[in-house]
Amino acid sequence: MQTVWDHVRLAAARTPDRTAMVDDRGPRTASFSELVEEAEAMAAGLAATGLSPGDRAAVMLPNIWEHAIVILALHRLGVVPCLINPRLKPDEARALMQAGEARLAICMADEAVAAAAGGAVGDGRVLCVGGMVPGVADLASRRGNPADLAPWLPPDPEALSLVLYTSGTTGLPKGVMLPHRVTDARILYVPTQCGLRHGHHNRAIGLMPLFHAVGLYSAFLCTLTMNGTYYVHSAFDPAAAVDCIERDRVTFLYGAPAHFHALLAAPGFSEEKMRSVETLVYAGAVMPGPLLDRVRAAFPRAHMTNIYGTTEVMNALYMPDPAGRPTKYRPGFYSDVRVGRIGSGTGDLCDVGEEGEVLVDAAADATFSGYLGQPDATAEKLVDGWYRTGDIAVWLGDGDLELRGRVDDMIVSGGENIHPEEIETVLRQCGGVRDVAVIGIPDERLTERVVACVVADGTNREVLDAWCLASPLADYKRPRGYVFLDELPRNAANKVLRRELRAMAEAAATG
Ligand code: 01A
Ligand code: AMP
Ligand code: MG
What we know:
Blueprint: H1 4-14, E1 19-22, E2 29-31, H2 32-47, E3 56-60, H3 65-77, E4 80-83, H4 90-99, E5 104-108, H5 111-121, E6 126-129, E7 137-138, E8 160-166, E9 174-179, H6 183-194, E10 203-205, H7 213-225, E11 229-231, H8 238-247, E12 252-255, H9 257-265, E13 279-283, H10 289-298, E14 303-310, E15 314-320, E16 328-331, E17 337-340, E18 356-361, E19 370-371, H11 375-381, E20 382-383, E21 386-395, E22 401-406, E23 411-413, E24 416-418, H12 420-428, E25 433-443, E26 447-456, H13 461-470, E27 481-484, H14 498-510
Parallel strand pairs: 1-11, 3-4, 3-5, 4-8, 5-6, 6-7, 10-11, 12-13, 13-14, 26-27
Antiparallel strand pairs: 1-2, 8-9, 9-19, 14-15, 15-16, 16-22, 17-18, 18-21, 20-21, 21-22, 23-24, 25-26
The structure holds 4-Chlorophenacyl-coenzyme A, adenosine monophosphate (AMP) and magnesium ion.
4-Chlorophenacyl-coenzyme A binds next to helix 7, helix 9, strand 14 and strand 15.
């Protein structure tokens, strides 16, 4: 077993002088040996704040250079990074940090976020990046001497290495606990399954968020492990990404379908500028058929793979050369996959052609060890050695599976999970809302777009949008469309007929 730190230090031992990382916010680059030095200097500084191995540290940062260094530095110390989506509002972030019992928080220099973090981890235990907040220390001031670090000792494979968050039906996002044993499988599926060859010719741009499984393991850590160069992309800017791909002759692109949608629409995009791309991978959501065709045509030289996975089990299904078959997949490396009858035990399997829930063998190396502090939620998803994904699929008879949506009502918007209940709760509290149901409808950019179906009593779209923006709900989760109805369609058991609502909202959207 190799840990995150092992992968990086061994890559540095192989190619110390090669460029490991290039910043997009200035002329900053690091060779592999400099990257290791930089991470060790920060690790030494963080050790001086009294952190011990096994402690947890909340990190809430966009895709900036410092985020990458902090992740490596914490791994060098044996401190567990808990990576929080920087799009969350301060109150939600504070609650996550509290629930995760973080002993340190690292965030952007934003007064509200720093105050929330201080409330969770204690004043004096917050470090800020990219500016000054009165009374809060600057991360950059926390550099130490690598020589002061304790020698590197391999940890127990089952010890916690990282916490990533995934949104649940209600309440706070759940902390997905990832022990050290998951690291190899989570990094190495990219070369085995997506055809990424080892070597310094690899140049990747960091499109995917570092706080999600794909951006972290499959783009950032995999690029370093392959001895390639990782181009930091601090905030997703499609035009800047096109320039970087052309100028730096990027060879490896890993994005959500929404990234490719944006790249193709960016000013100055051309097939010619994409000629360097050899390996193209997408994950996080179905890529709508028309977009898939356009991506295929725009990257004629690239080997393309679609990866289906979850934060909990990582890559479970894949489809090489997915052109023309956007929802077809086959079981991937490191995973054994079943389709089980919905609402039944995990041993009750579907026949070919019968829709069921995708179940993934929990014995695989890449599988999480549970949700942080939530044994009940863990027991609900890990059943008799199988992980229940909540995705519906059907075996097609030729060994392929077709994905057919969700068992629950979860919406996957731009590769982010959004649960209707969370939004319904917020909208229900708004005056003038008598009833509400939130659904997802097809969207070319986001695959699915959030729409609220509202029975209103003197309110309107503008008022509801302002209400959501002022609520604790992260802005990206709020509805992008509203449908006003006299009443919601319900069945005899008073359950909202979401399928009907979706058809209605789709019809309203298309014409
Ligand atoms: O009106 P405004 O200003 O608030 O609108 C803003 C944002 O609120 C809105 N926005 C979104 C989303 C979203 N996901 N859904 C709906 N609305 N994201 C942002 O868009 C307006 C422009 O804001 P922005 O900050 O400029 O947005 P972008 O930077 O363009 O971000 C959009 C992206 C689609 C790029 C961003 O949401 C993103 O990076 N999505 C990818 C998420 C991801 O990494 N998913 C994979 C997670 S790991 C789980 C998994 O699926 C998996 C798969 C395979 C796990 C393991 C494996 Cl092996
Ligand atoms: P998360 O719960 O954030 O880990 O996201 C995982 C969910 O994203 C899966 O359960 C699927 O619903 C969806 N997903 C991820 N990758 C794909 C893909 N390649 N195709 C279709 N859906 C995907
Ligand atoms: Mg997702």
